[in-house]
Write a structure and sequence with these properties.
Length: 313
């Protein structure tokens, strides 16, 4: 059996034991390669890595765009991706909290939690809900720009031969994000303050609200579910949302792609019962996932467009 096949077999057995027993062994020896193999847990991170790494790396994604990163667990084929990876970038801040994934990432010596590293280097940027960090940092493009800077620095450290290449492409991507941030801010602030309220399925748009909806952003974003979508809504939570919708004359609520809209339908039914006409947006927003054939910039522009089209009147 070839050395590569042996390594794959050993790694597969190691992952199985790791998932079942919650323990890990010493890292397997790496085969020296011409290009860094970089694995990103989410498509949003993968977009940064692929752009900056260009043709100097091999980039792959662990969690497909239509899957929920909050609850993702390892599936068949993931062991090969993990074995191949010289670097693993993940969001952190509790986003990837599926048991097998969390244990592996916490133990891996070549994994980088970008959100946690951002918090360490730039304290005070995170939003906390009930003392739990909100992991949806990509919803503020100016924060995602800082994540792009982190990825650039880490790639330069791991592959100094191509550091100038990574630095140039990283700078170019950060400029693109700066322009996107300004464009979204301009579009959102063109909506009157009286209409600038966002009701979504789960608490994924707090960073978006803080960056683009106003200084009193906490009052401008509502969701029946918490940081991870679980389809649950309490009577108290429902009452609070209905009262705020009445107070601010909110007439549109936004479903999210790949997230159950049942809680929003309950809100719509309750609002209708109390004489408040509320409609569901015909187009969903994207929070933890990306539309097919769309990159991160396209997703953020799309979300801003859907929000604007429904609220600007």
């Amino acid at each position: 059996m070839m050395l590569r096949d042996c390594l794959k077999l050993l790694f597969s057995l190691g992952i199985t034991l790791f998932v079942l027993n919650g323990c890990s062994s010493e890292p397997l020896p790496k085969i020296k390669k011409e290009k860094l193999s970089v694995l990103s847990t989410t498509v949003m991170i993968g977009d940064i890595v692929t752009y900056i790494g260009g043709d100097k790396i091999v980039s792959d994604i662990l969690i497909n765009r239509e899957l929920d990163p909050h609850s993702y667990e390892f599936v068949k084929g993931d062991d090969e991706k993990l074995l191949e990876a010289d670097l693993i970038f993940y969001n952190g801040l509790g986003l990837e909290h599926g048991g097998s994934v969390r244990r592996y990432l916490n133990k891996s010596l070549n994994s980088y939690a970008l959100g946690d590293e951002l918090d360490r280097r730039c304290p005070g940027l995170l939003i906390y809900l009930d003392h739990i960090p909100d992991p949806h940092i990509w919803m503020d493009v100016s924060l995602w720009q800082k994540v792009a800077q982190l990825v650039t620095q880490i790639l330069m450290e791991k592959d100094p031969v191509h550091s100038a290449y990574f630095l140039e492409r990283g700078g170019r991507l950060q400029n693109k994000y700066a322009q996107l941030h300004q464009a979204i801010h301009k579009k959102m602030t063109s909506i009157s303050l009286e209409q600038r309220y966002l009701v979504t399925s789960h608490d994924a748009f707090n960073y978006f609200a803080r960056a683009y909806l106003g200084s009193d952003w906490q009052q401008r974003v509502l969701a029946p579910e918490g940081l991870a979508p679980d389809g649950q809504i309490s009577l108290q939570g429902l009452r609070l949302i209905i009262d705020q919708m009445k107070e601010h004359h909110i007439e549109v609520i936004f479903p999210e792609a790949y997230v159950s809209s049942d809680p929003l339908k309950k809100i719509q039914e309750s609002a209708d019962f109390e004489g408040l006409a509320v409609k569901l947006s015909n187009d969903p927003l994207y929070s933890d996932s990306l539309p097919e054939a769309t990159d991160y910039e396209g997703m953020m522009s799309y979300n801003a467009g859907v929000i604007y089209d429904n609220l600007a009147r």
